[in-house]
Amino acid sequence: MNTVGQMLYTHPEDPEGIGAKAAACVRACEECARACTTCADACLGEEAVAELVACIRADLDCADLCAVTGRAVSQGVGRDDALLRLLLEACAAACRRCGDECERQEADHAHCRACAEACRRCERACTELLGVL
Fold this sequence. Notes:
Blueprint: H1 3-9, H2 19-44, H3 53-74, H4 81-105, H5 110-132
Helix pairs in contact: 1-2, 2-3, 2-5, 3-4, 4-5
């Protein structure tokens, strides 16, 4: 468990013990944000970049939402669960959209396959945290 995970797991405002799911969500969001940013950059390096515009846009949207959602979750659950729920729902939706787009490209681009996998993991982590809020 990383430092953020330890802090969330032992957070004094986590009486329901959801810190482990929150920590998993933060890790998945951080990983997905990096994967999407890297995928967008790799797409820009491809010869047929015009065919990857939708993928690049989905990558960038997903990276932004994952970054902000990961930060919000790491600030602790229980502060404003309504806002956190909205962010988690938006992040899961962005991950689903980006994962779908990357899967359309994965046969030709290995970086899209890796990104789709990170998106699916993040979507699951956000959905699992939503289930306990």
